[in-house]
Amino acid sequence: MQVSMEINGKAVSIDVEPRMTLADCLRHHLGLTGTHVGCEHGVCGACTVMVDGAAMRSCLMLAVQADKAKVVTVEGLSCDEALSPLQAAFRKHHALQCGFCTPGMLTTAHALLSKEPQADETRVREVLSGNLCRCTGYTALVEAVLEARDAYQGGQEA
After folding, report:
1. Given this model, what pLDDT does residue 155 score?
2. How far is CA 20 from CA 16, 46, 67, 98, in A?
3. Structural contact between residues 103 and 150, judged by C-beta atoms closer than 8 angstroms
4. Same fold, 2-75 and 85-155
5. What average pLDDT does the structure give for the chain?
6. Does 136 have pLDDT greater than 90?
7. What's the pTM value of the predicted model, to 2 decimals?
8. Of 109, 127, 107, 132, nearest to 35 (Cα)?
9. What homologous superfamily is domain 85-155 in, according to CATH?
């Protein structure tokens, strides 16, 4: 099936099998390997991408379901060589260790702050709890997201 979508601001048209997941399409056909695949059941959150502004598990979504959608992967969070404020906060707070969960955490946090730039610590913890991390203990992750909030004020996305 022919699928057309906007990925990280670029129009893409690709032939996919009807049963191909969005995660597999992104990774294997478009070379966007920042989207990680962990559990393949939507539990771990490593494959989280943004689809039309909402955080979605790309392992649970078929590529054909993303037809005509705007998809943002971790590669699309920064539009130049510099880190986005959210990525910089993750680095500053050591909110990544092995790095496997990091793309999903970043896209999840970006989706949250884009919609709720005033999210408090409780809300950040609630949203990030849907993504599994075995290395950081979440404290550094929460601190990084809280620090990045200012960059999302006034409707601007970081």
Report:
1. 62
2. 7, 18, 13, 28
3. no
4. no
5. 93
6. no
7. 0.91
8. 107
9. [2Fe-2S]-binding domain (1.10.150.120)
Q: Is the pLDDT of residue 31 over 70?
A: yes
pLDDT band at 45 (very low <50, low <70, confident <90, very high): very high
Q: Tell me the CATH class for 2-75.
A: alpha beta
Q: Which of 66, 42, 71 is nearest to 132 (CA)?
A: 42
Instruction: Sketch the domain layout of the chain as residue ranges.
Output: 2-75, 85-155
Q: Say if strands 70-72 and 2-7 run parallel, antiparallel, or are unpaired.
A: parallel
65 or 156: which carries more pLDDT confidence? 65
Q: Which residues of 37-54 are buried (b: 16+ CB within 10 A; e: fewer)?
A: bbeeebebbbbbbbbeee
Q: In three state form, how does the secondary structure of the chain look?
A: CEEEEEECCEEEEEECCCCCEHHHHHHHHCCCCCCCCCCCCCCCCCCEEEECCEEEECCCCEHHHHCCCEEECHHHCCCCCCCCHHHHHHHHCCCCCCCCCHHHHHHHHHHHHHHCCCCCHHHHHHHHCCCCCCCCCCHHHHHHHHHHHHHHHHHCCC
Contact by Cβ (8 Å): 89, 95:
yes
